[in-house]
Write a structure and sequence with these properties.
Blueprint lengths: L3 E4 L3 E4 L4 E4 L5 E4 L1 E3 L4 E2 L9 E5 L8 E6 L9 E6 L1 E5 L5 E5 L9 H10 L5 E8 L4 E8 L6 E8 L9 E5 L9 E6 L5 E9 L2 E8 L6 H7 L6 E2 L9 E7 L2 E6 L9 E8 L2 E2 L3 E2 L10 E8 L6 E7 L9 E6 L1 H7 L1
Antiparallel strand pairs: 1-4, 2-3, 5-11, 6-27, 7-8, 8-9, 10-11, 12-13, 13-14, 14-15, 16-17, 17-18, 18-19, 20-21, 21-22, 22-23, 22-24, 25-26, 26-27
Length: about 325
């Protein structure tokens, strides 16, 4: 996409560290990928292989994005990788959110450079998800099919990572895993339940959840299992496959091939109102296509109150295979709901 160059008085909010500072009126800024209410290809991340299943770091810092890709294996198995991104907000230009792809040295990303060789194997790794608990323990979740089916695994560490700190794991999240496929964990806004999808019933993917200990014992609970109650989320689960739940505040987004869509897998959302999830709503043909839309992840970028969503799709017009896209969804949710 051709860069748009403006001389603008603006406030620039950078993702890495969330620094807020004023820009001189004569500051020159090149816009790269403008995020609107129509999906835009994040071309700086995508290749002619499959690039999908993204996640932002739990604290929206480090100016990286995590996702699954088979580009490093030339189209065979999937590994989790990271790429550099920078998100900036420009209130004086019609509330523009811009994503660009800076070139940076890996020296600033010691955590990722130590983590990914630990979790990536000759098998498939899907669906990265990061979580920081109130006890300052950091968790990196993903799914791996080394055992013949997908199992949820995780690595954790304490505090903010530096070169001398130990990463613990990978461990199997035993309380979530079964003899079927289990993947795509997501923790709700108050840290009391963990959601995931599984095809443990009739080889059909549904969305499930269970309560968690949102403290220093979370990793013990995940590893040791025990007598937990796994609940099928019947409001979110339909008669077909429902997968990839992702939660941001009171908004849950997921993908489904249920009837009534536009073809393949479509993206849906549900709102948590008074502790209950609403009936899922299709995002409509402004976002969905006759092809597959997959693994949506929503986020809010302060000081904006709007919601945005990154997802993957194999629709035409991309670089090839599955590509990552981003779209602004706040107004669309208000219009549809």
């Amino acid at each position: 996409m051709k860069a748009l160059r403006f001389l603008i008085p603006t406030t620039l909010l950078l993702l890495p560290g969330c620094w807020l500072f004023d820009i001189d009126d004569n500051y020159e800024f090149e816009f790269d990928t403008l995020i609107t209410d129509s999906p835009v290809n994040l071309y700086g991340l995508n290749t002619d292989c499959d690039d999908y299943n993204s996640a932002l770091p739990y604290y929206y810092q480090g100016n990286v994005i995590y996702f699954s890709s088979n580009k490093s294996t030339y189209g065979t198995n999937f590994n989790i990788i990271y790429e550099f991104i920078e998100i900036t907000y420009h209130p004086d230009k019609e509330d523009i959110l811009n994503i660009s792809y800076p070139v940076q040295s890996d020296i600033y990303h010691i955590y990722e450079d130590n983590l990914f060789p630990l979790i990536n194997t000759d098998y498939n790794e899907y669906g990265p998800y990061t979580y920081r608990g109130p006890d300052a323990w950091n968790y990196f979740f993903y799914a791996n099919d080394e055992g013949g089916d997908l199992d949820i695994r995780f690595v954790y560490n304490s505090g903010y990572y530096d070169a001398g700190e130990q990463l613990y794991g990978p461990f199997d999240a035993n309380i979530l895993n079964s003899e079927s496929d289990d993947a795509y964990p997501a923790i709700n806004s108050d840290g009391t339940r963990i959601f995931f999808c599984s095809d443990r019933e009739d080889n059909q993917f549904d969305i499930y959840s269970t309560t968690i200990n949102n403290g220093t014992g979370l990793y013990d609970d995940l590893i040791n299992g025990g007598s937990v109650i796994i609940t099928k989320e019947t409001v979110l689960s339909g008669s077909r496959n429902d997968k990839c739940p992702s939660i941001n505040n009171n908004l849950l987004v997921f993908t489904s091939d249920r009837e009534g869509g536009f073809g393949g897998y479509d993206l849906y959302y549900s709102l948590n109102v008074d502790g209950r999830w609403s009936a899922p709503v299709n995002f409509g043909n402004k976002i969905n296509s006759e092809y597959n839309e997959y693994r949506p992840v929503s986020f809010t970028f302060p000081p904006m109150t709007d919601d945005f969503m990154i997802f993957s799709s194999n629709r035409p017009g991309g670089k090839g295979g599955y590509d990552l896209y981003c779209v602004r969804i706040g107004d669309l949710i208000d219009d549809l709901y």
